[in-house]
């Protein structure tokens, strides 16, 4: 799809290094000039005075459910939600049906999703015990990295054993890709879950007790150890426990290539909220007590947490109802991702520059998409999120594009509104609504 021409004039650019006023000129979908007083030369002009101009968000962690789980949600709804929320690239997880575990399945998934994408997308392959020989083939076919589910997940992919994890990280060291880990020890989760089940408890805190911090801490230690010994690059996604953060902080200070992601729900919700939201806020690993939340914020601000992801994980309403132990884990999150973090930044929880750093540049780097994606610079794709920092509005579940719109943030008053989402020079969403009639997102292939 041809890119657009656009001059974004008078905004305040927000990049990891700081903020400054400048115009951005996009030609044929690519940023060709950044500077003051640029002349439109016939291009369409977007007045961004009083607004913040951020790189479009690269959401490294979405489960759009297609193919195979369309009753939960699909790629059309998911990428419309992304566009509405200022996300211009999504990195789609491989636990769809069938799981993406070889080059052929990866290509077929890319073919299927192309033509349904309202934003650009990249694909991860899955890692399990039977497909170590497929990793090179998947990279060749366009995978931007791999995901290993160490704990139980949607799609019931068996977790890889230690040997497979080690070998995958050896390959990572040699070939330069990132392995993303769902970092919970399956055996421990199973034991604690059985213990809670045998007590017959299904109160709102039961889920939290079924996956205590040691499940994350053990997985983080193992991943950090193997990354240390192999020189491979590991990203532990959705870290919720302070103990796991401490493991990552120590390993990183020794120069180990281990990265940590957390998600808005861990930063903004705590165990105090289970009484009110119950299964609606059930995620894996669970949202923990306030002490953990405090440590996560500290880790965001001291650089231990290097990325944020939404962990967009929709389910049907039936799956999210009932008691917390039987309900599905995960909630639609891609549309609220940037708004929630903007609100947090504008209220002083972290510098606003953390948004382009943790939600654009770093994810793009880890998955070989930088500087095409995740960067506000000449030569990068003209992907922008333009934000009014003074606007206040209320998050409403009914405004979500998800097939089954629900969010624990329903009714939350937030500051900072995504006014325009620009994908390769074209306004794809305006004021929270998709502004194009046909999808124009493309599959992007990484450079590892
Ligand atoms: Zn996930």
Give me some keywords for this one:
9-stranded mixed beta sheet, single chain, 6-stranded parallel beta sheet, 18 strands, TIM Barrel, 448 residues, Urease, subunit C, domain 1, alpha/beta, binds zinc ion, 32% helix, globular
List the helices and strands and how they pair.
Elements: E1 6-15, E2 18-27, E3 30-35, E4 45-47, E5 52-55, E6 57-62, H1 75-84, E7 87-92, H2 103-113, E8 120-123, E9 125-126, H3 135-141, E10 146-149, H4 162-175, E11 178-182, H5 186-198, H6 206-210, H7 213-230, E12 233-237, H8 242-253, E13 258-262, H9 264-268, H10 274-277, H11 290-302, E14 305-308, H12 317-320, H13 334-346, H14 354-366, E15 384-394, E16 413-423, E17 426-430, E18 433-434
Parallel strand pairs: 1-4, 1-5, 6-7, 7-8, 9-10, 10-11, 11-12, 12-13, 13-14
Antiparallel strand pairs: 1-2, 2-3, 5-15, 15-16, 16-17, 17-18
The structure holds zinc ion.
Zinc ion binds at residues 61, 63, 93, 311, 313.
Low-confidence stretches: none
In total, the number of strands is: 18
End-to-end gap:
25 Å
State which percent range the strand residues make up: 15-25%
- Count of DSSP helices? 14
How would you state the average pLDDT, rounded? 96
Largest sheet: 9 strands, mixed
CATH superfamily of the largest domain: Metal-dependent hydrolases
Structural class: alpha/beta
Give Rg in angstroms.
21 Å
Q: Which fold name corresponds to the CATH topology of the largest domain? A: TIM Barrel
Shape: globular
Helix content: 25-40%
- Any idea how many domains? 2
The CATH class of the largest domain: Alpha Beta
Name given to the CATH architecture of the largest domain: Alpha-Beta Barrel
Provide the list of bound ligands, each named once.
zinc ion
